[in-house]
Amino acid sequence: MTTSELSKKNILIVGGGFAGIGCAKKLANCAASITLIDRHNYHLFQPLLYQVATAVLSPADIASPIRHIFYKQENVRVGMGELSGVDLEKRIAHFDNVDVKYDYLVLAAGARDEYFGKDEWAQLAPAMKTIDDALDIRRRVLMAYEAAEWEADESARRAKLTFVVVGGGPTGVEMAGALKEIAAKTIPKDFSNIDTTTARVILVEGGGRLLAAMPEKASEQAMRDLEKMGVEVRLNSFVTDISPGMISIGNEKLAVENIIWAAGVRACKFTETLGVELDRAGRVVVNPDLSIPGHPEVFVVGDLAHAFDEKSGRPVPGVAPAAIQMGEYVAELLGREIESGAAEAERKPFRYHDKGSMATIGRNRAVAAIKGRTFSGFPAWLFWGIVHLIPLVGFRRRLSVMFSWAWSYFSFTKNARLITGNIKMKVKRLRRD
Amino acid sequence: MTTSELSKKNILIVGGGFAGIGCAKKLANCAASITLIDRHNYHLFQPLLYQVATAVLSPADIASPIRHIFYKQENVRVGMGELSGVDLEKRIAHFDNVDVKYDYLVLAAGARDEYFGKDEWAQLAPAMKTIDDALDIRRRVLMAYEAAEWEADESARRAKLTFVVVGGGPTGVEMAGALKEIAAKTIPKDFSNIDTTTARVILVEGGGRLLAAMPEKASEQAMRDLEKMGVEVRLNSFVTDISPGMISIGNEKLAVENIIWAAGVRACKFTETLGVELDRAGRVVVNPDLSIPGHPEVFVVGDLAHAFDEKSGRPVPGVAPAAIQMGEYVAELLGREIESGAAEAERKPFRYHDKGSMATIGRNRAVAAIKGRTFSGFPAWLFWGIVHLIPLVGFRRRLSVMFSWAWSYFSFTKNARLITGNIKMKVKRLRRD
Fold it and tell me: How confident is the model at residue A2 (pLDDT cuts 50, 70, 90)?
């Protein structure tokens, strides 16, 4: 190491999601030594994760090795590890396998799923945060039909052919639509004993409307679209209990074998060790410059941050564009300070640029709200596709996803219908032949 | 059910590999009721499985849902289940989840890996039979580099950067070549602490030459090609012990963290319950018509069968074309007997048509032996690609694999470099920064 390298500032970025990657990329020309550590070796394009769970895309279509993203950017080192805590005074981050010293720390470790104190539900109602989660859900969904095909007991068969999605945000809406499409369009011809078109998909939302972050018009359209497809939407409904083969929605008990959780997120656990103010979801309440109180060298970005937009005063939503903007904002700030060699007297606060929001519901159906205008149907659906195709990492992935979409659109099939991993078929009473 | 359906013969096919699928497809016009049951819901194109393990292809590229293969063929029902035994007298096959009566039984359940009495090695030296196996190996290979990047202890790092492939058949040769390519071409730029081009790949073969089923000229060429790429080939060498972090080859002990088993196959366990003669690998010694002694209604095909070619008198090799031919042979025989309503007085014996054999070694390198002629290098490599592309199930898969190959050829990258599933990084002494 040369002296100039020794004197370089160490920037540690924890998390390779949209915020972490956005930050590290924006620091490409910064004369700093950057370390980026994530639990996984891949950056995941989370908005399309439900398409892995519903067998449209393969994991490699939406995930890129983080090392490969940065192999040309020489000031970035990449590692794998899980953050357990931070020593803010000594400026050391503790991972499960390594301790890393930093001059600047950017926490971008994202969120995990929130079961509101009912962690025991996680096994029965899996959520979808990682590739492995999505493959687990794919396995469960496909196995439900396989088991139903053998099941001779009528009520047990109905339970296997019932799918409940908890949470009416974008993930829940997209998942419910896709599950209904599989049942009604993709697989009916594949089964002989069961009529998959009779499968029930129930979407449960605690609030008064779906897609609460979007304009009311979009919520209503999404609801109409889902109901037209045959999804049963229950608004103002809460899950009160989940046990094997059973869900309670309010006072109603329902026999159901397939529950998917999309009801809420919570910041990663280590935020509790920071000794700073957290909101109810465990997110760090940050300063206007996204740093934490008393530590101008520590920033929190992405889903981990409870931040406010400087202009509107409203909380910054937990969406990909917001995460990227936060990451890039911190990168620009650090770039300036490292170049000038001194902390800025007054840091310009973070400002969120809302580029709109959207959700896809099914074939030719989507809703989008952009700059106060709401639109839906085929135009919104096409727009959704383009908007989600462009930011995928790498030309190869864009091509591959485009091809998979085109194929599944025109052929009504889903290519990745593989049951991998170990799962045993549980059948109450066997159809004997 | 109508009377004509009730009087239909029931053909039960166990296994959805090349033999089972080949048999069921060939029975498309047979007035029988066919049931095909496999442990998995997918048909796997096994010759390309090593490319999933080496991150070139995604599982969905080489596996198709069996239901989807037959959704238009109305005389086939598809199910999932694992065969535990057969009651030959009562003509009932017992699965883990169902019992199925049959008039004709076609056993095509294939082979599993053989550790020659050392089943405890399976954990330390995984083999590659299913998609899950391949994903496990992919995870281990990619994690080895991640762990080496953090490892401060020189000898422990060397062990992580050493890969031993046991078995010099086509799978072992292809795997060794692909592992060396990853180390030397795909990932060197991705790592900063380690030089991946120094990774050792050792191929261990018990016999006197690689690819023993091919002509000697091909074996020699494969050996030259591998050594030119930097693979260390050890002929006449036997693995005598495997323990965590250690392998013994003959009397030599080697510190190694990555061992891949490609040394032998053994028939699925249930053959032992049939009460018929088995060979040393547990395969059923079949009659010239592939039926089992005393039971003309029970056939064994594919890797499960110890069969002889009627013409040459030589054993039929355990390769995909042989499996397909056996499956189709039985289908034609059954078709004739079911149509005529009576067993044939003298069944024409099975005859194997050897269409040649081949193995790919690396970029632009392969060996092929077709009708007595051996060729190698780029022509053989291109030919290997075409021959493996055509039989993939479905136009979509062919396109996708072709695209992945072209991409990885021209870009020197491997797209599917994702570490999925749970694995902990084990590092002896941490590199501290």
Answer: very low
